[in-house]
Amino acid sequence: MARVTRAAVELWPRVMLVAAALVLVWAWGQDVGPPVGVIGGAVVLVGTVLAALRQAEAVAHKVGEPFGTLAVAVVV
Questions:
Q1: pLDDT tens digits for 17-47?
Q2: Range of the domain at 50
Q3: What does the alpha-carbon distance between residue 41 and residue 46 come to, in Å, rounded to a whole number?
Q4: What's the alpha-carbon Rg for the chain, to the nearest Å?
Q5: Total domain count for the chain?
Q6: Of 3, 15, 27, 62, most Cβ neighbours within 10 A?
């Protein structure tokens, strides 16, 4: 079984945000069609929301209770 390192866990939000930006640049001004647009948009949206939530949780652990809870609540 492959071992997951902490660096890999910390890297995926950044990779997801770069991938979302690349998909946006690729799809801008193109007629990609409803199935590709809906499925691709949903995958990118879910991935970026999860990446943002991961970053908000990291901020919440660093800044403490009142502001950390607010950061996670804003993302959700």
A1: 888 888 888 888 888 788 877 888 888 888 8
A2: 1-74
A3: 8
A4: 16
A5: 1
A6: 27
